[in-house]
Specification:
This protein is an all-alpha fold.
Amino acid sequence: MISKKIAIGALILFCLGCIIYLATQVNQALEEYKHWKTRESVLEKELEVLREETRAHQQFLDRLRRNPDFQDEVARKELGYGDPEEWLYRFPVEPKD
């Protein structure tokens, strides 16, 4: 009788130990899942920003390829080019503190 009670008590303790172990494992898995879902959403936002940036660059390139006036404007502004009859003045850029 006493050995049967000890066996049942040991089985109950073993089951409780297993339940506690499984609960901690499930909790760790859920925390890791939440971490990766958060990371996924951050990466999705970053991807959307990069796609928008790519669209803007593509529009700039398309406009540069098709519009000669825009080509002249970019060459003047970015490269400092001008027409042969023009005088170009370049001033030094002061560094900002």
